[in-house]
Amino acid sequence: MTNCVHDHSRWGAGDEIGAAGHLLNQRTTLAALSKVREGRIIDLSHVIEMGAPYINPVQTPYMIHSSVTARNNRKTRAALGATNEVGSNLERIEMTTHVGTHIDALGHFSKGDYLYGEHSLEEAVGDWGLLNLGVENIPPIVTRGICLDVSGLDGGAHLEAGRPVGVDDVKRAFDAAGTAPESGDVVCINTGWGPYFMKDNAKYLSGEPGLDAEAARWLTAQDVVAIGADNMAVEVLPGTKHPEIMMPVHQHCLAEAGVHLIENMLMDEVIAAGITEFCLVMLPVKLKGATGCPVRPVAMV
Prior knowledge:
There is one protein chain. By secondary structure, this protein is α/β, with parallel strands linked by helices. It has two domains: 18-48 and 97-300, 3-Layer(bba) Sandwich (Glucose Oxidase, domain 1), CATH 3.50.30; 63-94, no CATH class. 23% of the residues lie in helices and 20% in strands. It has nine helices and 15 strands. It has helices at 18-23, 26-33, 70-79, 121-124, 167-177, 201-205, 213-221, 248-257, 268-272; strands at residues 41-43, 63-68, 90-94, 102-104, 125-126, 129-130, 141-149, 164-165, 186-190, 210-211, 226-229, 260-263, 277-282, 292-294, 298-300. The model is unreliable at 1-6 (pLDDT under 50).
């Protein structure tokens, strides 16, 4: 077994709930709800549909097909004696849980032979999903959301693929937003890459601007519970030390810090409205053993 030393094991070996489970409480909930002044709700998620971008070969395409149709089973029910022409429609969906706007469970990434909380791959990964650290461990999230817009840092509508967002960029974005990070925050990074989602999937998947490892470490040190972005992976792709070091932001946030990542967020409306601070509500579905889950985060303002 590879010896792996985690640099952020503050809640000890065996923990499964991470930052969200430990840092969210009644105080953070009430503080977030106090941000709601207008009663407006802004959807921060994309529609999940066939053709949604996915990363080959680790992900599979979203597929939906009708398994039962009202046209057919209405006849079946009539044959059984029903006289009210009742029909029902049902479907079957095939997908990775990392499709569209989604959240990563802490068991999604490893460092060496270990996952978050020093759970070993041998003990935590089964033939039918995760035995530890599945998405069912993520609590309902009602907390302060912060939108940091870094899309114009280089003078264009968006940052270019491969452009790292560093610590200084994040600090300046907080200053521009007129706020500072607080314990329990969900920080949402707008790189300007999001408009390519379902408009130009080839470009969207060719690389992306995003956080570098140092910026991710700075954010987790501020006690955020999740980091989201308008791109496929939150982190810059290709990475700053690619190919020697791959996916360091995932490795740090999930396997070391116990901080969730929210990917493919839809930030257009909050950016257009100039909203930087809001109450974020997100309730992941309890898919036992899953490494992620499609989510529908909303900003309440």
